[in-house]
Structure formats: structure tokens, C-alpha cells
Amino acid sequence: MNSTMIKLKNLERSYPLGKEKFFYVLRDINLDVEEGDFVSIMGPSGAGKSTLLHILGMHDHGWRGEYFLGETAVHHLKPKERATLRNEQIGFVFQQYHLLDDLTVYENLDIPLSYRRYSKSERAALVADTLDRFQIVGKKDLYPRQLSGGQQQLVGVARAIIAEPKLLLADEPTGNLHSSQGEEIMQLFRKLNDEGMTIVQVTHSEKNASYGNRIIQLRDGWIVKGEG
Amino acid sequence: MNDLRFALRQLFKKPAFTAIAVITLALGIGANTAIFSVVNAVLLRPLPYPHPEELILLRERLRGPSGFESGSVSYMNYLDWRATQRSFTDLALVRAEGVNVSAVDAGSPPEHIRAARITANYLSILQVTPRIGRDFVEKDDVPGARKVVLISERLWRNRFGALPLALGQRLNVDGVPREIVGVVPEKVRFPRSCDIFVPLADLRADHDFLSRGNHESFSCLGRLKPGVMLKQAITELDAIAADLARRFPDSNTGRQVSAKPLLEFSVGEYRQLLYLLLAAVGCVLLIACANVANLQLARGIARRQEFAVRAALGASRWRLARQILLETGILALLGGCCATLIALWSLDIIRTISPANTPRFQETAIDPGMLVFTAGIGVVTTFLVGIWPALRISNNASMTNDLHDDSVRGNDGAHQRRAREIFVVMQMALAVVLLAGAGLTLKSFWRSQQVPLGFDPRGVLTMTIALPSSRYDSPEKIVRFYDQLLEKVKQLPGAGPAAICNNAPFDHEEWDSSFHITGTPPDPPGQEPTSEMAIVSPDYFRVLGMPMLRGRNFGPEDVSGRPGTIVIDELAAQRFFPGADPIGRQIDDPVTIGDNNQKAASLTIIGIVPHTRNNALGDKVDIRNLPMMYFSASQFAKGGQNLMVRTQAGYNPQALVGLIKEQIATLDPEQAVSEIATMEENIGESLASRRLTMTLLGVFGGLALALASIGLYGVMALIVSQRTRELGIRFALGASRGDVLRLVLGQGAVLVGLGLAAGSLGGLIASRALRSVLYNVTSLDSAAVIGAMLALSLVAFVACFLPARRASLVDPIEALRME
Question: What percent of chain A lies above the pLDDT cut of 90?
Fold first, then answer.
């Protein structure tokens, strides 16, 4: 039986609008994600999808409630401890790829490893493996501006999983891609999921959502369907 | 290593940013290092003697309308001070003089050298021992003593190859063979540039020298005893002076002692100027740091997303800081190298335009400590500002916004925007202050050049001749030499009238004396009328183009043995004979005039000439504004003279130098000349200090203007890029190009206006500090401030217009597509 990868209890995120006034982006979120799940978070614009994803990715600390990542109570951790946990367990794929323009493909893949405790030889080996796995060895010395959108997102995905995270979060991973490029990325996600990676994606696309095994619907900050 | 590679790549990917940052840092650091090096060399570096703070220079000062603050010490007063005082370990006498030096063996041409006449205890007071050989001893410094000399290390190197065999060799010093007994170390620089040191010796028996009222350009050097404060010493010396005034009222009434630390005496007059320049260049550094800070802030906005992504990928705060530190370090290294070059070049230029005879200016070298310190300021500023965005991201509760903001929208926080605007306003204000200062000194310099000289300096060649008393031991010999010389010089091709004068305009001599107007009641001691004095040959006034306003010039009848005559200037006529005709009136002077104990009986005024300016504006003597009186060189012979020749139109005065030297050699092969220059060069040299101030403030003002404009342009360019989307919307809603141009220019105008307002106030306040270096210009001269504001406004307009024009050309479709 799969264990629970993510458990959210009464999670909410708000922004102050003035004295004693708040705007709630997320309200009373209760969600369980099992290991090996491929979850799609859907909903209209402004529903709070990306906010939820960034909370899961520990980019956002301004929330209240309970968040368990595996056995770890994230809500009890300090930001620095969360950053360490994030580095160990989570990979993130951005809609705009967010590759570093001044770094080659090789160096973009190497960057997350350099922020973790890998030796030089380990990093070189992991980068080489990843380049090979994603069949982008020939592009290792190119800069992002020399790649197509799909190729950039491919590198973005490779960068997200190079440190072997248990959880992959993807924020509209195909949002800036043509449909054929998007399909390639989604098939890659399926493959990773088949290999055991837990994936949570935010998407507008029903087709992309169909690659997963579960859909969560958000509206106005509430989960309206698919609550765990 | 990766971070270093990335840092290099980052910097060279943005060559404009890197170049501007490096150049800005280099200019700010380099200029500061150069000026501080000068300040350090001139003002701060202690004298190279043990316990230099104990060395005090004593001079005489005189109260009263004709008083002065720093006059030479009379020998007899010195003897009494030395015998009576208890505050100093000892007192010595010293003065600089010019001597002719040649090797004892015949055939070597004489050289005119600067010498120091000292008492035997001079070096021991400095606590300096000779490099080789021995110091003077008491028995070297008595009348009739064996003739000995100390030479400088420079002379030892140049003439004797720095070999010990120099000891015991003999040199002809003013025709007197003297044995070299020791070499004075190079560090002894007071008096400056002296290569020969001669004891007083026979002077101590000179009748003239022994007259208490005779002041022969000596200064007195003393070393305070341990534990004795200068104030205590001054109190004691004042009491001694009061006692001497009681005992010798004729010569000592009103005379007191002025005492200053030796360093202060040497360079104190430059203190205000140098600190002013240091403050000015500090403003340049502030502007440079503000510029670099603005560049970093702008870059930080553009890289905020990068920092957010790096943080999202796992970078800790230290890793982000390390990256920025590396980039800053590279900028600092490049900036520091360029700053070193700039400092070296600047020092070369400063040394060139500095007054040539100023102590210590020419010894300036780069101060490595200051280079490092100033570079450190630049680096710290650059680093702190550059790391701000990165730290902010790691501090933020959420990096989500930073991850989603792209550089096209490039939103920056209100704090950063405010900080940038404050930097720009600060730069504008400082630039106005510096430009106003430059304008004031420029105006002052121009006005100082417009002050009428009272004579025509064009085409006048001057040189100094010092006839040694050992060979010219009678007035007749002196007069004969100069009469023959002048006759020969006048015959030279290209030469016009020629004359001699022992106290010529803009030479390094000063001679003033008190006198009595014959037929008037005796003046109270210390309140006698005083005038500058000069011994001149008849053609002197023709050489300088000075018309005879009334009466007549010196003529064949004004020779030795005939009644004494004198020509005065119109200031003397107005001051001493107001409302009356001075022609035919007489004065008498108790002090001897000329060499060989020549005394003046009553002198009859025969002519009046225009008043001339003889010294640099603001010079101690100039401030006293003394009138001038001229004695006939045929009646009062003096061995040390300036030869002055007016060249014919179209002739280069310098071309006469060799010919004149030949003529001198025919009269006396052992006679050298020195200080060869044109009158215009001498006048230029007198303005060197003002020129230095004006040039440096002008350069700093220009630098400030350039840097402030770059800063303003950068901020305006960033504002335009941030508002591209907004401008596209405005166009889509119907705005014209003119509307957008006015919108952007208006934003720039606010910043510039605030800067100008702050700068004008600062300029008026700061200009008070310039009071001491301005001539005939008030420090509240609004024209200078207004001029600075106009100059800055013009440049600022261009700096704002270029980005504004770019904004007006934004394609609305492209701008909206960025959404």
C-alpha cells in the first residue's frame, strides 16, 4: 500500500488588504496525495492553483494550517529547514521554463546539484546520465536562447528531476508550448510517473489532466472536487 | 570555480554595465587616492626626523600698522634667546642663500647652487648625523675658523659618485676653498633643495651682522625639551622678547617671537587648500559610489527573477551572496587596476602643475593604504547594494512574485525606486556644488590675472647673479662688474634695455625696511613707516615699461660719493606724502643698504613711478601692500642681483641666455647664473597655487557632471523600460508622442529640480569654504552657482531626453504584446 506523500489540513493562504481585511487565495484546503499519484490541479484563473503548487513546493511560507510531506510536519519547520527539505525531496517545473540564460544546458542541469552536497565527480556523472536520459547530449553546450520552447522545457524537466526528488511539481508545464511539444512533455511525465515519481501538476488542459490519475478542482480558493 | 566562471560571464555579457561600473569606480577611487596621497605627503606625513613634533621654527613678528607675522631673526636677538631660554634643548640659526660652487682645480665651470648657512648645532637639533664624515663642531663656526663645508647626498652622488673619497676634497664656494667634512642625509630638506651647508663662522664678526636691528633672512630652529608644551615655550619667549624690547627699544620695540612647528611652518599655508581638494574629491567618490549603487540596483531588478529561480533550485543565502561577492570582486579588481593607473597619471599631472618650489609637493607618491581604503569603500557600496535584491528574496515570505515577474515588466519595490531617486538627486546636488566651486576658482583665477601689474612683463628675461663677497669686497668692484655687464648685454643682438634689481617683481627675495621722513618728528619705535626696497640700475624702469610719472630717473649724477637719491612709487607718495609733492623731500634710513656696511644719509626723492605688484596675490607680502622705494645701484652696490633684459619684439628671450652667460664669463669665468626665466614664467609660477586649485576643482566638477549625467541617464532609461507597457497603453488610448515625451521628461525634471535645489543651497554653503583661496570674488557669488546649475541642467536635459525620445517611439503593439 502506498504511503501518503502529501497531507494538507485546513490550509489557507491570505493577503492583507488593509486593517483587519484579508483576501483569501486558498481556503480550508484538505488534500492527501499518495506516493505514485499523478495529480492534476485544475480550475479557472484566480482559483489559487499556482499558489497551492508553490505552497507545496515551499516557495511560499505565508500560509496557515498543516502540511505534511511524508512524515515531516512542514508547518513546524523554519524556512531554512523547509529549504533543505525541498532540496532533498522536491523538483519544480515552471511554466516559463526559468532556465538561467547565461548558463549552458549542461550548467543549467548542474546548478541544482551544485546547491546540494554532491561532489564534483558525482555531479558530472548525474548530469551526463540526465543528458543521456533526455537525449539532449548534443545540446549540452548550447544556451537556452538557442533552443526551442519545447527543448527548453525538456531541460527544465531534466533540471527538476536531476537530484532525484520524490515529488515533482509542475506549474502549467506546457502553457508556453505548441501542442506537439506539450504532448512530448506530458508523455515524459507519464513515463516518470510510471517509474514511481509522484507528480502534481497545475493545468488548464483537460488533455494534459488525462495523463494523470486524479483531478482536483479549485474554485475561488476552495477545493470543489477531488478532495483527499 | 563555477561561480567565478559565471561571474566573469555575467560581467562580460553586459559590457556597457561593466565598463561604466569599472570606469566609475576607477575615477572615484583613483582621484581620491591621488589627492589623499598629496595631502598625506604634504600635510600628514611626519618630518623624517626623530620626534619631529618637537621641532619648532621661531621667527620675529611685529605688532603695529606696519607689522608682520613672520620676519627674519636678527643674530643678536638669537644669541639672547639662546642664552636665556629654558624650553628648548638648543636653538640654531639657518637661512638659504645662493652660492657659486666650482671644483678647486681650474677649468670647471661654476654652478650656482642653493646653500644653507647654519650654526654648528643645526644638524644636532634635527638629531641627524651625516651619512659619512662628521657634523660641524663649535670650532668650525667661529670667525677665522678653518673653512669647511657639508654637502648634500645629492651633490655627493652627482659630483663624487657617492664615494667616500669625497671627504677631504675641496670645493670653491663663492671663491673660498672649503674642505668637505661630511655628507648631509637626503632626508634633511629644510631649507629645501640645499646642496651646500656652510657655518656662520666669519659672519659672526661682520659688523653689519652684529647690528641688532639688522635682519638677514635667518630663521631660528629649536627642539622642545621633553615634556615642554609649545604654549609654555611661547610664554617664555614672549617674556624674553619683552625684556629685549625694554633693553633695546630702538630695534626691539613691538617685536615678539612667533613659534610654529616646523612642519606647520613649511606647509601650513597649503592646509586649507588641500583639505578643500580632499573634500571635493570626496564628493566625486560619493557620486561614483551612488552611480555604481544605482547600476547595481537596476541590475538587481533585472536579476531578481534569476535570484528567485536560484533560490527555488536550492541556493542558500550564502551561495547567492557569494556569487555577488565574486562579481563585485572582479569589478573591484578591474576598477582598482584602472584606479591605480588613474592615480599615477593624476599624480604626475598634479606634480607638474603644482608650485615648483613648494615643499613636499614634489615628493608625492601613491599611498597604497589609501588606494585600498578607497577601493574598499567602492567595493562595499557595490556589494551591499548588489546583494540587496538577493537577500530580499531569501528573506521574503514568498518568492512566488519574484518567480513570476519577468524583466520586461521589471517591477521594483517602492524602496528600491526611492533609493535610486535619492542617489540621483544626491549626485545632481554634489555636481552643482563642485561645479560652483570650480566656477568660483576660475573666476578668481581670471580676476587675479586681470589685476594690473604696473609694469609690462612681456619679453623680459631674468636671471640671478650672486657676486661672492670674497672676490667683490668693495662697492667699486661690484659697480664696475655690473656696469660692464649691462653695457655688454645691451649690445647683444635682440637685446633691448638691460638693468639689475635686487628685489625684482616675482623673484624669491623680499626686502622691506622702516625709515624716517626727514624733518618729521621721530616715529615711536615699532611704528615707523615701512616700505619694500630695491636697488636698481637706471634702465630698470625702461626694462619694465614703467613710465616716470613725475620727476626724473637715476642718471650719471647719482653715483657713489654724490648725495643719495631715491625714486618712490605712487603708493609711497600717497601714503607718506598725502596731498603734497614728494619730489625734493628726503628720507633717512638707519639700516645699511647694500653690501660692505654702506649707510644711507638722507636720500632725496627725485622721481615717482607707478606702483607695481611684486608678489603672488594673497602672498604674505602682497597682503601687506607695501609701497616701493628704489635706490641707485651706482650709489648702493649689492653683489646679489637679478639681471633683467627686455628683448626686442619678435625675439625669443631664451635665445639670449647663452649669449649673456658668455658675456658674464668674459668678465668673471667663475661667476655662475641661476633662476633663469622670463618674467611671464615667474608670474605664472606665482599663480601656480591658484592654477592648481582651479584645475583640480575644474576636473572634479567635470567628473561630477559626467558621472551624475550617466547616473541620471541610467535611471531614466530604466524608468522608460519599466513603463514600456504603460506607455503602450497610453498610446493605445490616444496619447501623442509629445504627450509621452513630456511625461517622461517631467519625471526627469523632478529629479533634476530637486538635485539643483539641494545643490544650490549646498553650493552657497560650501563656497564659504573657498573664501581663503578666492581673489576678488565673494564666496556668495551667485553667478557661479547659477552657472553651475545651467551647465548641469543642459547636460541633464540631454541625459533625460534620449530615453524620453526612445519612450516616445515605443510601438504600442509591441508594448502591449509584452503582456
Answer: 64
Copy the grid coordinates of residue B812. 504600442
Residue B407, pLDDT score: 43
| Helix runs in B673-723, H state only | 679-686, 688-722
User: B153 with B133: CB under 8 angstroms?
Assistant: no
Distance CA A100, CA A94 (A): 12
Q: Do B35 and B182 contact (CB within 8 A), yes or no?
A: no
Could you read off the pLDDT of B396-442 as tens digits, one per residue?
556 666 676 554 345 556 777 788 888 888 888 988 888 888 888 88
Chain A residues within an 8 Å CB radius of B403 = 54, 59, 94, 98
Q: What is the dihedral of CA B169, B173, B177, B180, to 10 degrees?
A: -30
CA Rg, chain B, in Å? 34
Partner B contacted by A107 (CB < 8 A): yes
- Inter-chain Cβ pairs, chain A and chain B, closer than 8 A: 58
* H or E element that contains B799: helix B782-808
With an 8 Å Cβ cutoff, is A100 touching chain B? yes
Helix axes B688-722, B317-353, angle to 10 degrees: 150
Tell me if A86 sits within 8 A of A115, measured CB to CB: no
Measured distance CA(B381)–CA(B332) in Å, rounded: 11
From A62's Cα to the closest Cα of chain B, the distance in A is: 6
CB contact under 8 A, B310 and A86: no
Class of residue A163 by CB neighbours under 10 A (exposed 0-12, middle 13-18, buried 19+): buried
Helix, strand, coil percent values for chain A (each to nearest 5)? 35, 30, 35
**B783 contact A CB<8A:** no
Residue whose grid cell is 515625451: B741
**Cβ–Cβ contact A87 with B under 8 A:** yes
ipTM of the complex: 0.82
Cell of B624: 601687506
Question: How far A192 CA sits from the closest chain B CA (Å)?
Answer: 20
